[in-house]
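Handout, section 4.2: multi-component inputs.
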Amino acid sequence: MQYRKHAIKVVSVAFCLLVIFIWTPVSAKGVYKTNSQFLQESFPGQEVPPTQTLWLTGEIKDGIKEILGHNYVKLRVKYWRDKNSTAWVLEEIGKERPITAGFFIDQGKLKKTEVLAFRESRGWEIKHPFFTRQFIGAGLNVKNKLDRNIDGITGATLSVSAMTRLSQMALYLHQHVTAQ
Amino acid sequence: MSPRSNPKAHRRRHFSFYILHRYLGLLAALFVLLLAITGIMLNHTEALRLDDRTIHSDSILEWYGINTVIPERGYQSGKHWLSHQNKSVFFDDRVLNLALKKLTGAVTTGQILVLSGEDKVVLLTQDGELVDVIDRSSGLPDGKIQRLGLSKQTQLVLETDQGISIASSDFLSWQASETNDFEWSQQAKLPEALQIAMAKNWRGEGVTLERLILDLHSGRLFGGNSGVLLMDLAAIIMIFLALTGIWMWVIRWRKRRAHSLAYKRHREKLS
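Output:
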């Protein structure tokens, strides 16, 4: 009888552990920062410059298609410019859902990269500074690739790849608007 | 006294595992049958042409969330109809890749087709390609959007619960308006032919028999994660049955061996 009770206890504990394991939230998806917060932090001590827009047509569209491997989700992107500094809020699909990221670029180099919203269930580790600070100081080489290697994160390969592509796109767009 | 040195306790333990094994076996039988039958079918997908056969049963499609409830009313803007159902936005007969809780209006200004939800304005090309999304962070006026319209100069106008605003030509800045002499977009009944085309597109090719059997096999058909969890539980029960089965078999085998040895010794003594 005692052993039957033991067996029932073991089975119940195993079941409870399984339920806890399944229902414990394993992701940290959500909106981490609003666009306005990101812009205020990117242009500290001054008013955020007025919003400008860039239509992704012709040569720019082709360039972005080469960087992303597909057309950008929108035909027009918003940016904020102060002299040679620009800020961009861009979106790219990680696996199934879009990742929103903010980029602040000064003199053709990334000064700030942040994940503003993450909607996937996996790969949210890219929001941490240990990952995003790798982009600081990065620029584009002649092939429109980052001039440095970005270390991946195990289990977040697609998110890392999406962030890398978006940073290339931001730098590419920066080059375009500052060259005008 | 340990159960092994106490034959009564040993027998009780054996009996309790036997009872547990028996009842869990009965419970697992249902899952074993389900997994075995669906597994055999999936092993012969091509021969059974499971991927070619589609299911058109309303109840199964509704179970998959592919319901045929399509909007009856929408906004006509230029040559196009914009309508909304369950957070999905229809551009004529196809669903756009954007989610809106509510569609509050749709107008065409220049080459841009503009539609509004309660807290954002979406710009589309005449082909339904996404141009941009304007929300509070892009300067959209405060308040819930009530309706969308055009001024006499074809400027975009929107009314929120806090007032009426007129958009600049790039839709990024808004100016409050004192007048209300605008042409507001109005909903109208969708043409019947369009509704039929919408229903057809919404359902697509339906669900293949392979998908249904795969979801039965994995448990996803019984409610996503809960169904998968149920199948996990069934798998754990099956592992438990296998282990208790082996354990009981070993005990019986040892007993039988002990019996036969004792019998052999007894025969040797007699002879």
